[in-house]
Amino acid sequence: MTANVAVETTPEIPLWNDSTHPLAARVDALVGAMTLDEKIAQLYGVWVGASDNGGEVAPHQHDMEEAVDLDALLPTGLGQLTRPFGTVPVDPALGALSLQRTQARIASANRFGIPAVAHEECLAGFAAWGATAYPVPLSWGATFDPEVVRRMAAAIGRDMRSVGVHQGLAPVLDVVRDARWGRVEETIGEDPYLVGTIGTAYVQGLESAGIVATLKHFVGYSASRAGRNLAPAPMGARERADVLLPPFEMAIREGGARSVMHAYNDIDGVPAAADETLLTGLLRETWGFDGTVVADYFGIAFLKTLHGVAGDWADAAGTALRAGVDIELPTVKTFGAPLAEAVAEGRIPESVIDRALRRVLGQKAMLGLLDPDWSPVPPALDGADLDDPDALRGKVDLDRPENRELAREIAEKAVVLLTNDGTLPLARPRRIALVGPNAAEPTAVLGCYSFPLHVGVHHPQTPVGIDLPTLRDTLAAEFPDAEITVARGTGVDDGDLAGIGEAVEAAREADVVVAVLGDRAGLFGRGTSGEGCDAESLVLPGAQQQLLDALLDSGRPVVTVLLAGRPYALGRAVTESAAIVQSFFPGVAGTHAIAGVLSGRTNPSGRLPVSVPSGPGAQPTTYLGARLAQASEVSNIDPTPAFGFGHGLTYTAFAWSDLAVDAEQAATDGEFALTLTVRNTGDRSGTEVVQLYLHDPVASVVQPVQRLVGYTRVPLEPGEARRVRVTVPADVASFTGRDGHRVVEPGDLELRLSASSTDARLTATVTLTGPERRVDHTRRFHAAFTQEPAAQA
Question: Where's the Fibronectin type III-like domain (predicted)?
């Protein structure tokens, strides 16, 4: 007789949970098993705030939306959780616990066990209470250093991933077209190549940490009429193709970005959220993007309320889905019941929902959210006692010393010295008059998407959460033997003149005056810089110019320091200040970096990512202007900047010499090679930034007088020289021709090796030969630089 042997059996794993199968097959199986309501539920998010006691998240009550009932929504599933850490102040460990408990609830409530994607803002660091506030993107651009930005983004991504976040809503790849626009601080600069290279590095860093990077705003948002937020963006197809789209092309192809956020604006009457030729035709069919397209917050509803291209919520939902938007954010409005009803009525085909759903589920599968071993416990809580929230408080540090050290490195590299008559570095001054509205303001270093200014201002009873030394603090440490007198003078934008007399008196008693001026970041009119804080002109806000002029009249040397989110016209200070130091919201270590530049501890190496205007009203203008955009005898308005794009001084001197060109002719599918020597002729170490500009004297369509096509940082010790070689592919000379296709045309070119857009040092005239050549998004984007030691003089 045969004995009965117990055989263990393993329940069959559903195909969509089986990671041994191809992703597409898993997604198809899951789509096929879902009801319409379950499908739609994956296509929207809900705006929530984590609980500071570790309980589940609570829906955020926003004045633009009705209250959301999570209990009613969760049985069918949920696509995303909007900003659990970035909505209210919450201890990071307890926020992670709150998110963990909520994800467990979401997964258990729907029959497929699918959790939500949690997304957060990360424009200048993880926008969470207690997280490091890094310099804003305009400072990233000022570094001209993609490598340090890549490291910063990786650090931000690791912090986000550690507490359970999956997606970051950054970087902003909008190219500045009008500096009056409030969101200039969120951009990387006014040149598409600089924006593309720095932005791509950020994407690479964020994605290396497992965070889905989200490119925004696609496309045209920064080109709004008069620099107004959420305004029409009048432009031609060529400006869109040659100025605004290249950073997105680069970040998708080279950065591996997995998400794109549509812009709010319309172009020639077509809102971006409704533009099928943009979101499907160009982005997916031409460029091959296979990630998700998410809505900018409330952007789908805006198709009805602001654009007037949809008659009701269902119409707005169908229009966006057909165009190629996959996910409604920040909460459910149009993709909920209105969409389900429209499908039932035959107004919207279920196939467009399935198309978006496949992209959403595919991304969730890539994030491991469909795997059978998925756990809601984030890495930061591994091994922790999840039943004891009080013991967790303070156990997760999002502002570690290594974060702050990285923030310091970026801030130092981003400080731009605009002018200097020799007053800087300061030589042990006995008496310093520290004057201005930002002299003793801790948050003057922060942008509008930093947590303290974006969220914390609504919770004044909650501590800031991070250490923010003022410039008064860091100058006192930098010059311990100096007597520092502080005078506010005036507010950032209150127009108050009452304190100017006191400030001037302090100035007259000092050896040197440090005037600390600029912006206050905020949202929707609560600041002078930031989202919804557009400027009528580029005069300094409030009475700051009157203060500055009075200080210049004091007879003492004035060092003008700007903590700002955009460039400003500085009037007399351009020629009369002893020095001008420009910093764009430099983050937690910003005042330390500025103090180091003032003392000479740090040799400045930042370069302007945006031009500084000579006058406050000559907008819109950037250095990318064509010949007709330059100063001329037929207009009384001179748009020539006070300081051009790429400008920046140091405390040493550099000589450029010995330009050699391997061959002065190349085919339209070839390349040129140029070599030059850069020598530090000063007495201290420093970094030169070699910038390569292309000038096309004759083209079939009007071109900018010049445009950046490459750059490299060259660090040198005193007396040291390096031989810098740059290989320039013909592709970088391409532009959109008359027929709408990008072409490389034969003819002469000037390759200008420059210290800035206004300071060409060496120029090579070269010629492209052969037939006109058509190129596309697979073209070569970069001029490649190498460096090696040069023979000593």
Answer: 688-757
Using one digit for the tens of pLDDT, what is the confidence trace for 123-155? 999 999 999 999 999 999 999 999 999 999 999
Length of the chain: 793
Query: From the centroid of its chain, how far is CA 371?
Result: 33
Q: What is the distance of C-alpha 262 from the center of its chain?
A: 15
Output the six-digit token pair for 302: 């805006």
User: What residue type is assigned to position 274 of the chain?
Assistant: A
Pick the closest to residue 454 from 166, 125, 180 (CA basis): 125
Structure tokens at 276: 């099928």
d(CA 430, CA 112): 71
How many of the other CB atoms lie within 10 Å of CB of 599?
19
Question: What's the CA gap between 247 and 111, in Å, rounded?
Answer: 41
Contact call for residues 84 and 103 (beta carbons, < 8 A):
no
CATH architecture of 401-643: 3-Layer(aba) Sandwich (3.40)
Please tell me the distance from the alpha carbon of residue 249 to that of residue 565, in angstroms, as a whole number.
26
Q: What is the rounded CA–CA span in Å between residue 706 and residue 227?
A: 23
pLDDT tens digits along 658-678:
999 999 999 999 999 999 999
Cα 574 → chain centroid: 28
DSSP H or E segment with residue 58: strand 58-59
Residue pair 199/173 in contact by the 8 Å Cβ criterion: yes
Q: What is the rounded average pLDDT for all residues in the chain?
A: 96
Q: Is 612 helix (H, G, I), strand (E, B) or coil?
A: strand
Kindly tell me the sign of the dihedral angle through the C-alpha atoms of 453, 458, 464, 469.
positive
Q: Please, how many CA atoms are within 13 Å of residue 537, restricted to the half-sphere of its CB?
A: 10
**DSSP letters spanning 379-423:** GGGTT--TT-HHHHTT---SS-HHHHHHHHHHHHHH-EEEEESS-
Neighbours of 82 (CB within 10 A): 27
Q: What is the pLDDT of residues 285-301, one digit of tens each?
A: 999 999 999 999 999 99
Q: Which residues does residue 457 pair with via DSSP β-bridges, in sequence order?
A: none
Determine the distance from the C-alpha atom of residue 494 to the mean position of all C-alpha atoms in its chain, rounded to a whole number.
Answer: 29
Contact between residue 324 and residue 279 where contact means Cβ atoms under 8 Å apart: yes
Q: What is the Cα–Cα distance from 29 to 42, expressed in whole angstroms?
A: 15
Q: Return the number of other C-beta atoms located less than 10 Å from residue 254's C-beta.
A: 16
Domain locations in the chain? 1-121+292-381, 401-643, 654-789
Q: What is the CATH number of domain 654-789?
A: 2.60.40.10
- Alpha-carbon gap, residue 673 to 662, rounded angstroms: 6
| DSSP assignment of 424-450 | PSP---SEEEEESTTSS-GGGG--TTS
Token pair 């007709």 is at which residue? 628
Phi-psi region of 324 (alpha: psi -120 to 50; beta: other; left: phi over 0): left
The residues that bridge with 517 in the sheet, in sequence order, are: 562
Place of tokens 């119409």: 315
Q: Is the dihedral of CA 461, 462, 467, 468 positive or negative?
A: negative
What are the tens digits of pLDDT across the range 47-94?
999 999 999 988 887 767 778 899 999 999 999 999 999 999 999 999
Helix 192-208 with 146-162: angle, nearest 10 deg = 40
Residue among 16, 789, 52 at smallest CA distance from 365: 16
Its sign, for the CA torsion 216, 218, 220, 226, is negative
Say if residues 124 and 152 touch (Cβ distance below 8 Å). Answer: no
d(CA 694, CA 764): 10
Q: How far is CA 643 from CA 314, 368, 574, 611, in A?
A: 50, 49, 9, 6
**3-state secondary structure (DSSP) of residue 716:** strand
**Distances in whole angstroms, Cα of residue 507 to Cα of each of 511, 552, 558, 769:** 8, 9, 9, 62
> What is the rounded distance in angstroms from the CA atom of residue 446 to the CA atom of residue 133?
7
Does this model's pTM top 0.85? yes
